[in-house]
Amino acid sequence: MINHLFKLIWKKRGSNFLIMLEVFVAFLILFAVSSASVFFYGNYIKPSGINPDNVWVVYVDFNSNNDSLNRLSRDLLRQKVKTYREIKAFSFGTHFPYGNSTSNRGFNYNGKEINAETMGVEDTYPAVLGLKMESGTWFQDRDTIQKESRIVITQHLKEEMFGSEDAIGKTTGKDYAAKIVGVIPNFKFENDFQGNDNCIFSASNYTLSSFILKIDPEVSAEFEAKFAKSLQGLGKDWTIKISHLDEMKKDKNQLVIIPLTMAFIVSGFLILNVAFGLFGVLFQNIHRRRGEIGLRRAVGASATQISTQFIGEMLVLATFSITLGLFFAIQFPILKVFDVNPSVYLMGILWAVLAIYGIVILCAWFPSRQAAKIHPATALHED
Questions:
Q1: What is the pLDDT of residues 209-244, one digit of tens each?
Q2: Burial call 75-100: b when 16+ CB within 10 Å, e when fewer
Q3: Once rounded to an integer, what is the mean pLDDT over residues 52-58?
């Protein structure tokens, strides 16, 4: 049976080549989409480590280059914020999650250097965002006066830099001398689809103006306007902007979701065209091979055997195409393209293979059933 299928495929190699090319392209598209889906879904289901509910980000620009004056303005701002019972906790910082600012620097230990996002924050930062400690403790406000900085790092950075060793108490290299006092498990500061990343939190001694605050969930809708007006009253030249962290998170997620959705739609359209192409080619082959089908039925082939033959031919063609596609797809995990875990690509390959076989069987099933219903006398008479 298999030898017969190969002979039939070889005799029609011209038209079969086009089918194989369509399936090959479909496999590569499905591999790309499946790998992206596995990657982003795997990241999405991991905890972010951040609780954005009832958290506001207050951006304040003093519009002044006088450091002494800015320091006084910051102290005045701090005292004002403390007067509100509706504010449970607040923390000044260089920049915050889901914002547009970033700050990368090299993290060095024993000659090994890894880049990490660096945020200068205060000791109240965990209370605002609901951060949990994996090990150690968060630094204290008094640590800003220490000659050697105190820092907290993410678990991902700890594993990359120290492996299974305990990071607590270790000191970084000369370019950035700092003592590690704590490790947090997760901190996805860009969006929910971000993988585990490297991040450093340092006890900031800068003259900061912007801050995040945790609001009592029972506050009225008018509180935000009242709060913004009171801050604006502290400095006529100040620029005040308040954003909600949960909305900032949604906006950042949309930057990933929208391109992914567009990619799925385009890929689905292309796959649908491939499916219709296979469907049409099979019907055309059945029409051209009515005489062959009638002869096989006349010599005793059952309807099931006829149906199986056509499905088998398509599966053989699909296997050839998938084999060629695998040659290209397997290069991604081998070369670790885009610095993605090889298991992501392997899962993408698996889903693509299953999808291709599913599409081929689905497209071949109805035409093959139609071929099996051809009456031998009618087919031979027409031929």
A1: 899 999 999 988 899 999 999 999 998 889 999 999
A2: eebeeebeebeebbbbbbbebbbbbe
A3: 96
pLDDT level of residue 168 (50, 70, 90 thresholds): very high
**DSSP-assigned states of every residue in 119-177:** EEE-TTHHHHHT---SEE-PPPGGGGGSSSEEEEEEHHHHHHHHTTS--TT-B--STT-
Residue 382 and residue 32: Cα distance in Å, rounded?
Answer: 46
Alpha helices in 238-341 (DSSP H): 245-288, 290-298, 303-329, 331-335
Rounded percentage of the chain residues whose pLDDT exceeds 70: 85
Distance separating alpha carbons of residues 351 and 347, to the nearest angstrom:
6
- For the chain, domain boundaries: 2-45+252-382, 55-244
Amino acid at 165: E
- Tell me what the mean pLDDT of segment 175-203 comes to: 90
Q: How confident is the model at residue 2 (pLDDT cuts 50, 70, 90)?
A: low
Rounded-to-integer distance, Cα 320 and Cα 181, Å: 57
**CA R_g for the chain:** 32
Predicted pLDDT at 4: 54
User: Tokens representing 200?
Assistant: 């450093």
Hey, what are 218's tokens?
């029972």
pLDDT value of residue 204:
74
What number of CA atoms fall less than 13 Å from residue 331's CA on the CB side? 5
Distance CA 61, CA 44 (A): 34
Q: Could you tell me if 36 and 361 are in contact, meaning their C-beta atoms sit under 8 angstroms apart?
A: no
Place of tokens 């308040």: 242
Measured in whole angstroms, the distance separating CA 25 from the mean position of its chain's CA atoms is 24
3-state secondary structure of 374: coil
Read off the DSSP letter of residue 337.
G
List all residues 6 or more positions away from 145 whose beta carbon is below 8 Å from its beta carbon: 205
- Tokens found for residue 328: 């290209």
241 bridge partner residues: 59
Read off the pLDDT of residues 101-115 as tens digits, 9 standing for 90 and up.
888 888 888 878 888
279/273 Cα distance (integer angstroms):
10
pLDDT at 290: 61
For residue 195, give Cα distances in angstroms to 43, 45, 153, 339: 5, 10, 16, 11
